[in-house]
Amino acid sequence: MATVNIGRLRFVWKGTYSGATAYVVDDVVYYAGGSYVCIQNTTGNAPSVAVNTAYWNVMAVGGTDIASLVGLTSGDILFWNGTAWTRQGIGTAGQVLKVNSGATGFEYGTVDLSGYVNAASGSVGAYGNAGPPRVMSVNIYKSGQSVVMSGSSNCNCNCC
Questions:
Q1: Which residues have CB under 8 Å from 52's CB, separation 6+?
Q2: What are phi and psi of 8, to 5 degrees?
Q3: What is the CATH number of the domain that holds 48?
Q4: Does 54 share its domain with 18?
Q5: pLDDT digits (tens, 9 = 90+) for 67-88
Q6: pTM of the model
Q7: Residue 159 resides in a domain
């Protein structure tokens, strides 16, 4: 019959990593700003994100404490740029969030809608006796090309 150690049914917090301590599976340590869980018994093999993955799995990666970022204001967006947390301040009215031209981050800007013409045709009304108002068809034109989105009065799905 197998012996079950009730004390090992969960992770065991061992505190800050020490190279002199013998760790067993499911021991958890703090090291270099992160938390790591032992996956193979080890002594003297420090945890790391890129090394000693035979002994440790990352439980939580440390990094810049978001609260320590300078200049945060209401409406900011925070994102990880690959090495650190970065803030993107809110844009101005009418701007949209988009990827910058180098595809390396975010920026606010405007969307060029010049050349687009929107035309609606058909009836506008409720679906049957209930439902939101709808337009029977919408045509969007740009540079001589069109996309037509149409509804149908014969639709019985209650979704359009």
A1: 42, 45, 46
A2: -105, 15
A3: 2.10.10.20
A4: yes
A5: 667 778 888 888 777 777 788 8
A6: 0.40
A7: no
